């Protein structure tokens, strides 16, 4: 199969493999439970097996490259995974070398947030855009930065931790250990944490009703907010203002054409995004703000797969290439 690559989305629960064509058609999907408790060598075996099964089904030759998106920081040149919070035993594991030994393929590996930025640039709403920032609002907050057509990776490959920019010096503590991170305001876990506290008070009656005896989640908050509940609206307003402040800082720093918001929390809608846009105006210079558009991702649950594919398509020019005709210059933070 010409003009296509293999893409891998390694998650804490499941790993997915698919074939992605140059024009963004996803086919030959396969998935398996990650079985992370078995350790990195066993997971590498499962990835390699699924890769080769997918390649065989698609009639792909041995020289077709594969891109792998992983949920943790990665040294991008050799594909060494520094660690992965949700996969035990992953410390300085050379996943790239392990997969190359098993498959004899050209393998490129990157953090899933960075992959998502590449995917948006090649296949998503940022197609053709040389300067963009992607934020994934999920359980945590991840993302990546494309500058002049290149992924910013930094000296050790872990640049672009957009979720851990400080937006409040006296804010809540983040799971990373720092104080006032963007993630500590707008991630799924942060919104849920605040909602659970509110639900123990008189002001939390609407949230308790929306939960209907089930666990409180951001979706529950959105439901209460859609009914006009002041406590839920205030919670999402706070999260949205933090998001606007963070995005404003990124716009001032990188002067992007596009800021793309994805992830499950982004689906909470205007109760989150309206205060974000209002706050954005207070945290950016007019010149930068006039150039930047704030949009939602259109790649949905396949963002990491598309990103892994973009990574694989860029292997001819080295890690971090968005499109083959873009600059081959690596950008360091």
How would you explain this protein's 3D organization?
This protein is of the alpha/beta class and 333 residues long. It has 2 domains: 133 residues, 2-Layer Sandwich (Nucleotidyltransferase, domain 5); 170 residues, 2-Layer Sandwich (Nucleotidyltransferase, domain 5), CATH 3.30.420.40. The strands form 3 sheets. Strands 3-2-1-4-8 form a 5-stranded mixed beta sheet, with helices on both faces. A hairpin with a 4-residue loop joins strand 2 and strand 3. Helix 1 crosses helix 2 and helix 6 packs across helix 7. The longest helix is centred in the last third of the chain and has 25 residues. It is globular. The chain starts with a strand and ends in a 20-residue tail after the last helix.
How much helix, percentage-wise, in residues?
A: 25-40%
Question: How far from one another are the termini?
Answer: 37 Å
Mean pLDDT: 90
The level 1 CATH classification of the largest domain is Alpha Beta
- Which stretches are poorly predicted, pLDDT < 50 over at least 5 residues? 316-333
Q: Which class do the helix and strand fractions yield? A: alpha/beta
- Note the beta-strand portion: 15-25%
* Morphology call: globular
How many strand elements?
Answer: 13
Q: Architecture of the largest domain, CATH level 2? A: 2-Layer Sandwich
Strand order of the main beta sheet, please?
3-2-1-4-8
């Amino acid at each position: 199969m010409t003009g296509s690559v293999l893409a891998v989305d390694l998650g804490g629960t499941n790993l997915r493999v698919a074939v992605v064509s140059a024009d963004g058609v996803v086919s030959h999907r396969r998935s398996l439970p990650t079985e992370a408790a078995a350790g990195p060598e066993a997971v590498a075996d499962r990835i390699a097996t699924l890769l080769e099964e997918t390649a065989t089904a698609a009639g792909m030759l041995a020289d077709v490259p594969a891109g792998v998106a992983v949920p943790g920081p990665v040294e991008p040149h050799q594909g060494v995974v520094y660690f992965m919070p949700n996969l035990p035993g992953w410390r300085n594991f050379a996943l790239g070398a392990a997969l190359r030994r098993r498959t004899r393929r050209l393998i490129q590996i990157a953090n899933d947030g960075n992959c998502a930025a590449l995917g948006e640039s090649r296949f998503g709403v940022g197609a053709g855009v040389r300067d963009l920032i992607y934020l994934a609002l999920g359980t945590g907050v991840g993302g990546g930065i494309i500058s002049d057509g290149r992924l910013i990776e930094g000296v050790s490959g872990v640049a672009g931790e957009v979720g851990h920019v400080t937006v409040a010096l006296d804010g809540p503590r983040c799971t990373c250990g720092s104080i006032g991170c963007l993630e500590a305001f707008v991630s799924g876990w942060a919104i849920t944490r605040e909602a659970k506290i509110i639900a123990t008070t008189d002001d939390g009656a609407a949230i308790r009703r929306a939960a209907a005896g089930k666990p409180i989640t951001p979706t529950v908050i959105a439901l209460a907010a859609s009914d006009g509940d002041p406590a839920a609206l205030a919670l999402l307003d706070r999260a949205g203002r933090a998001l606007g402040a963070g995005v404003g800082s990124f716009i001032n720093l990188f002067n992007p054409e596009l800021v793309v918001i994805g992830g499950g929390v982004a689906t909470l809608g205007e109760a989150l995004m309206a205060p974000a846009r209002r706050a954005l105006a207070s945290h950016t210079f007019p010149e930068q703000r006039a150039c930047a558009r704030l949009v939602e991702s259109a790649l949905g649950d396949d963002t990491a797969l598309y990103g892994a594919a973009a990574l694989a398509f860029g292997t001819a020019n080295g890690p971090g290439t968005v499109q083959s005709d873009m600059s081959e210059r690596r950008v360091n933070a």
